[in-house]
Amino acid sequence: MTSASPTPLPPIHDRLPWSGLLALSMAAFITILTEALPAGLLPQISAGLNVTEAATGQLVTVYAVGSLLAAIPLTTFTQGIRRRPLLLTAIAGFLVANTVTAISGHYGLTLVARFIAGVSAGLLWALAAGYAARMAPDHLKGRAIAIAMAGTPLALSLGVPAGTYLGALIGWRACFGLISGLTVLLIVWVLARVPDYAGEAAGARRSLKNVFTLPGIRPVLFVVLAFVLAHNLLYTYIAPFLEAAGMVGRTDTVLLVFGMASLLSIWGVGVLIDRHLRTLTLACTALFGLAVAALWMGRDAPAVIYTAAAIWGLAFGGCATLFQTASAKTAGPAADLAQSMLVTVWNMAIAGGALAGGMLLEQFGTWAFAPCLLALLAASAAVTVFARRHGFPAHKTR
C-alpha cells in the first residue's frame, strides 16, 4: 500500500553513497551466510536436532525452495510498497529465521524457519540491485551494484569458513545467534543510512509478461541460466574432479583459492563495469572456459588445479554483478521485477547443476563434465555476442 503523501526522493550527488551501499552489502553477506552455513556445520546440527546428516542437508534445500518460489510473486505483489520498509521486512525475516534456528530443538520447526529465510532471500535479492542503482548517479550504477554485491564473495570465502570454525568452538546454535545479532545491527544501519523510495504508481506497474518480453531481458536470463548452471555443476562436484590428482583432502584449499580470486574479481568488475559490461561478461565466460579446459587436461597435476581454481574464481566472482547490472539497465523502471526473474533463474540453475551433475557422474564419470560445461559456456558467449543492442550492449555506458 502506498503512502498518501510520498516524501521527496533523496538527492543523488555525483558520487557513491558508500554507507548505504555497504549496508546493502552487509545484507548480502547475511543472506549468503544464512544460506550456506548449515553445510559447514552439518554434523553438529545433525547431532543437535537428532536427525541424520541427509535430513540436515534439507535445511539448505528448503531455503532454496523458499527463495525460488517467493521471488517473482512477492516482487510482483509489492511493486507499490515503499522500498525501505520492504527491504527491512526482508531483513527482519532473517532475524526471525536465524533466531528460531538458534533456539529450536525440533527439526520441523527448523525447516519452517529455513523456508522463511529462503523467502526473505528471494525478496532481498530481487530488491538489492535495483535499490543500489537508484542510490547512484547514472554513470556509477554498475559500480554501486558491485559494492552492494560484495558481501556475497566475502560470505563465501571468509564468512562461511569463519562460521564453521566458530561452530566448533562455541556451538552451531551460538553461530546462528551471532547472525541474528548482526541482523539487528543491520536494521539500525538501514534505518540510519539507506534512503527510502516510493513504490511504483499503479499506472506505471508492469506485468510479468510485459517485463519478460522487454528487449534484452530474455538474453540476459539465458546467459544467467547457462553460466550459473555450468558453475554449480562444477562447484557441487569439484571433489570428484580432484580425485585423479589425489587432492580430495585439499578440497577446502582449492575452494579457498577460488574464493580469494573471487574477491579480486568483484573488485575489478566494480571498477570497470560501467564502461565495459559487455567486454567483462565475455571475458569472464572465456576465463571460465579456460579454467574448465585446464581442469580437464591437467586434472592429475596439483599446480594446474590450483591455477585453474584461481582462474575460475576470477571468472565467477563478478558475474552476479555483471548479470544484475545488465538486467537492471535493460529493465529500467521495472528493475525489481526483472531481478526477481533473475533470482528465480539463478536458483533453478543451482538446482539444475546439482541434478545434472549427479546424473553425469553416475552415468559417465567426471570425463563428461568438461564437454558439457564448455557447451554451456559457448552458448552463454554466443548469446552475449548477439545481444549487442539490448542486454549486453556494445556501446560504452557513461
Descriptive account of the structure:
This protein has 398 residues and is mainly alpha-helical. It has 2 domains: 187 residues, MFS general substrate transporter like domains (Growth Hormone, Chain: A, Up-down Bundle), CATH 1.20.1250.20; 179 residues, MFS general substrate transporter like domains (Growth Hormone, Chain: A), CATH 1.20.1250. 78% of the residues lie in helices and 0% in strands. α12 packs across α14. The N terminus is likely disordered.
The global form is globular
Classified in CATH, the superfamily of the largest domain is MFS general substrate transporter like domains
What is CATH's topology name of the largest domain? Growth Hormone, Chain: A
Task: Give the N-to-C terminal Cα separation.
Answer: 35 Å
Number of helices in the DSSP assignment: 16
Classification by helices and strands = mainly alpha
Draw up the topology in text.
Layout: H1 18-40, H2 42-49, H3 53-77, H4 83-103, H5 107-135, H6 141-149, H7 151-170, H8 172-193, H9 208-212, H10 217-236, H11 238-243, H12 251-297, H13 302-316, H14 319-331, H15 335-363, H16 369-386
Helix pairs in contact: 1-3, 1-5, 1-6, 1-7, 1-8, 2-3, 3-5, 3-15, 4-5, 4-8, 5-6, 5-15, 6-12, 6-14, 7-8, 7-12, 10-14, 10-15, 10-16, 12-13, 12-14, 12-16, 14-15
Entry keywords:
398 residues, mainly alpha, Growth Hormone, Chain: A, globular
Short description:
With 398 residues, the protein is mostly helical. The protein contains 16 helices and no strands.
